[in-house]
Amino acid sequence: MSWQAYTDNLLGTGKIDKAAIYSRAGDSLWAASGGLSLPTNEIGEIAQGFENPSGLQSTGLHLQGQKFMLIRADDRSIYGRHDAEGVICVRTKQTILVTHYPAGVQAGEATKIVEQLADYLISVSY
């Protein structure tokens, strides 16, 4: 399956409205759906946030210029929330999944879908 198919499938669930897959270092975009493309500084902040979340804790998480309140950040997952919408970022062995869910979607539903894809990618050494 191509990288693009993974992001398209996330949107196909109806729980995610934007998705992108970046290299683990955050230096290259591998696939994007729903118009999600991050400026270098935003994907850099996310990539760094997996190693040291203090920057995200102090300034928040930014996605396409929108600031999200940091809900969780560890070496695998970063979650952010703004009003009724949110962001889920998950790091695998070789990728960073960056996703956005719209208002009306429960955070837990969106999180389960993205975390399951990450588990699958990890299981096949990605």
TrEMBL record:
GO biological process assignments: mitotic actomyosin contractile ring assembly
Top-level division of the source organism's lineage: Eukaryota
CDD domains: PROF
Short name of one Pfam family: Profilin
Native species: Lachancea quebecensis
Family to which this protein belongs: Belongs to the profilin family.
Protein name per UniProt: Profilin
Subunit field text: Occurs in many kinds of cells as a complex with monomeric actin in a 1:1 ratio.
Function as written in the Swiss-Prot or TrEMBL entry: Binds to actin and affects the structure of the cytoskeleton. At high concentrations, profilin prevents the polymerization of actin, whereas it enhances it at low concentrations.
Primary location recorded for the protein, binned into one broad class: cytoplasm
InterPro entries linked to this entry: PFN, PFN_euk, PFN_sf, Profilin_CS
Compartments where found: Cytoplasm, Cytoskeleton
Gene Ontology cellular component terms for the protein in this record: cell cortex; cytoskeleton
GO molecular function: actin monomer binding
Keywords recorded for this protein, A-Z: Actin-binding, Cytoplasm, Cytoskeleton
